[in-house]
Amino acid sequence: MSVLLNTSETDLGLIRSLRIQPLLVVLRPERIDLEAIFLTTRLCRQLDQLVEAGVQHVEIAWIDHPRWRDLVIAARSRHPRLSLGAASITQQSALQQVAELGFSYAMSPLLDRELQQRAKQLDFLLVPGVMTPSEIRQACDLGCRLVKLFPASVVGRSFYRQIAAPMGNLPFVIAAGGLRAGDLYSWLDAGYDAIALGRTVFENNDFDPSLTAWIGA
């Protein structure tokens, strides 16, 4: 495995925080969330439920909408101690915006050399999405200390152990895509460093009680 080049405190800080609670929850705004008063939105209610349950790391998916910036500012103002990141970063304009808004980090569903290079110019942590050993290697060559295995449900829980021995030292691996709260124990036991959950956290707008149980364990 290549030597990891990026030694930024942001990388290390997120890794330390995820070692304490290896969970991220991704929220995806709907158009009504962007057009209504923030305190009345579904996204605000979900964010409140996550914070009340003790979730420490939440990502808000980036959307090309003029009100997305206002929504993010309102979310940060309501929960200033939350480790807030941005999700679904696939283009330069999105990266520029989230960096200017002062996010702690952002994640992409793909590995893009130009995006990573621009993130380094901005001194901003962008975690790439990877799916193969070659992509993991390329991410490390670009200096990434963290990667997101996406979609994790496609490659399977055993993927980490299958590549760990031949590849040597792996970066911090976050499993994301198609997972549920009930997968937390087994996927973490399988070697993954953290798990990212999405819409499955809320079933019919009700918070998954198994996630509350896991956080309180």
Nearest-angstrom radius of gyration? 17 Å
Number of domains: 1
The strand order across the widest sheet is 5-4-3-2-1-9-8-7-6
SS element count, helices: 11
The total count of strands amounts to: 11
- What is the CATH topology assignment? TIM Barrel
This entry's quaternary arrangement is single chain
The residue fraction in helices comes out at 40-55%
**Structural category:** alpha/beta
Topology:
Elements: H1 9-20, E1 23-27, H2 31-35, H3 42-53, E2 57-61, H4 68-78, E3 83-87, H5 92-100, E4 105-107, H6 113-121, E5 126-127, E6 129-130, H7 133-141, E7 146-149, H8 152-155, H9 159-167, E8 172-176, H10 184-189, E9 194-197, E10 202-203, E11 206-207, H11 209-216
Parallel strand pairs: 1-2, 1-9, 2-3, 3-4, 4-5, 6-7, 7-8, 8-9
Antiparallel strand pairs: 10-11
Mind explaining what this structure looks like?
- This protein has 217 residues and is α/β, with parallel strands linked by helices.
- 43% of the residues lie in helices and 18% in strands.
- Helix 4 links the parallel strand 2 (57-61) and strand 3 (83-87).
- The chain has eleven helices and eleven strands.
- The chain has helices at 9-20, 31-35, 42-53, 68-78, 92-100, 113-121, 133-141, 152-155, 159-167, 184-189, 209-216, and strands spanning 23-27, 57-61, 83-87, 105-107, 126-127, 129-130, 146-149, 172-176, 194-197, 202-203, 206-207.
- The chain has a single domain (9-212), classed as Aldolase class I (TIM Barrel).
- It is globular.
